[in-house]
Amino acid sequence: MELKYKDITEKIIGASFEVYKFLGNGFQEVIYQRALAYELSQYGLIFKREIEREIFYKDLTEPIGRRRADFVVEKKVLVELKAIIQLEDAHMAQALNYLKAYKLEVGLLINFGSKSLPLRD
């Protein structure tokens, strides 16, 4: 079975490994975010960074809050970055909620904080 948007996610993963190879772990998330933005552009990907979305509840016409995703790449793939020692289930839940809020089907959760670069899709 072919993964959806495999061509895009492979480039994002390649860009992430390039950032990790150069910076390693231990920086704040924003440092990785800026470096990844550079690498994504080097890979020729179109992306937006820190896109804010309003969150609505049921039939309320006013939003109940706002959330900001780290990246939306090619208007198809959500990328959420972390810079922590270990990913927890709550981080996966957050990424899944962002997918729903942004009406996207594919996302990557990338953690630059551990001693190797774990990815969850």
Q: Globular, elongated, flat, extended or rod-shaped: what is the shape?
A: globular
**Structural class designation:** alpha+beta
CATH names the topology as Trna Endonuclease, Chain: A, domain 1
Q: How big a fraction of the residues is strand?
A: 25-35%
- Rg over CA atoms, rounded to whole Å, is 14 Å
Task: Give the total of domains.
Answer: 1
In what order do the strands lie side by side in the largest sheet?
A: 1-2-3-4-5
Which regions contain 5 or more consecutive residues with pLDDT less than 50? Answer: none
Number of strands: 5
Helix coverage percent: 25-40%
Q: Number of helix segments?
A: 3
The mean pLDDT is 90
The span between the termini is 15 Å
The largest sheet is: 5 strands, mixed
The ordered string of helix (H) and strand (E) elements is: HHEEEHEE
What's the CATH first level?
Answer: Alpha Beta
**What is the annotated CATH architecture?**
3-Layer(aba) Sandwich
